[in-house]
């Protein structure tokens, strides 16, 4: 059951009907047709999902008033109520924002509520008691999320940390290496610019969610971009198809927008390690095809070991890329140090101690959803 206005949106309405949804007019006294359709579906043994709040929350918390349609439907048909909570939806798309942001959304189903004891009471009393029990169970589930969201909002606005090792070692190390080779300050200016950005983030830039996302990914982005630019200036072979490799790595990093903060940060720190180890491997096996093997191989090993989002599709594609592309471009035994570099980066990250959970991996308060069904979970 979904808001009828959504069915008038081009394409979205057809998609909702494809998923089996049917419209409901949420204005007072206008939902009788949708209720009759929902009751007919339940009596045929179908599962029907309802949002008892009746609208999107403007604050992220559950609305204070729940509509009684779900409880009344369960009371009249004897179908169990299956409470469900959704976490992450408000963080992904707040009410007053035009476009959504990537966020991990999770749906949890809870123990069904048997309406039989409530059907022994008069109708109005039984429906009210059933609705009260539904609210009690949902609120009990919501409270941990409410507390976590308060912590989350504070952490997103907390002062920026001092530069981490994965942020400070690449610009300083690469600046020294490139300057030693070229004796030119002009070629190390990106290192100064990146260090300046870290200081601005520490002292000036207001902290919010997107700012912390950019900061967390900046170390890996700088290492790959500046490292690739500096390779020929160090007298090493230029990487053919570097833009394509960066596109592959960006695709490999995309699922981590939906992962826990600790997993994402660990992956990005490992990419820094992989980039630095690959730079060393270029001295041992001087072939520009090495990064096409080492970096995707690290990403594949990490996704496989952590069972990250989409890993079943990402791992085969990354492994195939890391093997077939270098061979297709004429790779040979010189690729061996690069394979070792990619796997060593994965081992380094795997052996590092896992710290406390970061802000972005904590859950947020869910809004509520309700499933109704004859035979079990909706």
Describe this structure in words.
The protein folds into two domains: 2-156 and 363-372, no CATH class; 165-361, no CATH class. It has helices at residues 12-18, 32-43, 69-77, 89-92, 116-119, 123-156, 165-182, 189-203, 209-230, 242-253, 261-284, 290-306, 311-328, 336-351; strands at 2-3, 23-24, 48-50, 81-87, 106-109, 367-372. It has a four-stranded antiparallel beta sheet. Helix 7 (165-182) packs antiparallel against helix 8. The protein is elongated, with a radius of gyration of 27 Å. 37% of the residues are buried. It starts with a strand and ends in a 6-residue tail after the last strand. The chain is built from 14 helices and six strands. Helix content is 56%, strand content 6%. The protein is of the alpha+beta class. Residues 355-378 have low confidence and may be disordered.
Q: Tell me the radius of gyration.
A: 27 Å
H-E order: EHEHEHEHEHHHHHHHHHHE
| General form | elongated
Q: Estimate percent helicity.
A: 55-70%
Structural class: alpha+beta
The low-confidence parts are 355-378
Q: How many helical elements?
A: 14
* Structure summary, number of beta strands: 6
User: What strand line-up does the widest sheet have?
Assistant: 3-6-4-5
**Major sheet details:** 4 strands, antiparallel
State mean pLDDT (0 to 100 scale). 84
Total domain modules: 2
Distance between the termini: 13 Å
Percentage of β-strand residues: 5-15%
């Amino acid at each position: 059951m979904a808001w009828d206005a959504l069915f008038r949106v081009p394409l979205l309405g057809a998609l909702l009907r494809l998923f089996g949804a049917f419209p409901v007019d949420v204005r007072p006294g206008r939902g009788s047709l949708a209720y009759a359709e929902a009751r007919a579906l339940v009596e045929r043994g179908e599962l029907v999902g309802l949002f008892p709040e009746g609208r999107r929350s403007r604050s992220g918390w559950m609305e204070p008033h729940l509509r009684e349609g779900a409880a009344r439907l369960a009371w009249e048909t004897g179908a169990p109520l299956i409470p469900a909570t959704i976490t992450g939806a408000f963080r992904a798309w707040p009410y007053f924002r035009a476009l959504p942001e990537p966020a991990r959304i999770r749906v949890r189903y809870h123990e069904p509520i048997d309406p039989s004891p409530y059907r022994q009471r008069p109708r109005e009393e039984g429906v009210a008691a059933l609705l009260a029990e539904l609210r009690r169970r949902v609120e009990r589930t919501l409270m941990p999320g409410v507390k976590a969201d308060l912590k989350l909002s504070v952490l997103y606005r907390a002062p920026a940390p001092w530069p981490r090792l994965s942020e400070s070692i690449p610009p300083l190390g690469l600046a020294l290496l490139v300057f030693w080779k070229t004796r030119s300050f002009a070629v190390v200016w990106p290192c100064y610019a990146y260090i300046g950005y870290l200081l601005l983030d520490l002292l000036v830039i207001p902290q919010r969610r997107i700012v912390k996302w950019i900061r967390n990914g900046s170390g890996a982005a700088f290492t790959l971009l500046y490292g690739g630019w500096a390779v020929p200036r160090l007298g090493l072979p230029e990487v053919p198809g570097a833009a394509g490799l960066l596109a592959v790595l960006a695709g490999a990093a995309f699922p981590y927008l939906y992962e826990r903060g600790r997993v994402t940060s660990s992956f990005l720190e490992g990419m820094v390690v992989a980039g630095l180890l690959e730079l060393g491997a270029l001295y041992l096996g001087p072939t520009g095809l090495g990064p096409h093997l080492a970096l995707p191989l690290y990403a594949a090993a990490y996704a496989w070991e952590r069972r990250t989002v989409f890993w079943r599709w990402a791992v085969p594609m990354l492994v195939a890329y890391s093997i077939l592309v270098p061979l297709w471009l004429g790779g040979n035994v010189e690729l061996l140090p690069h394979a070792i570099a990619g796997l060593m980066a994965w081992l380094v990250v795997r052996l590092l101690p896992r710290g406390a959970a970061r802000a972005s991996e904590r859950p947020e308060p869910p809004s509520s959803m309700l499933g109704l069904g004859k035979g079990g979970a909706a």
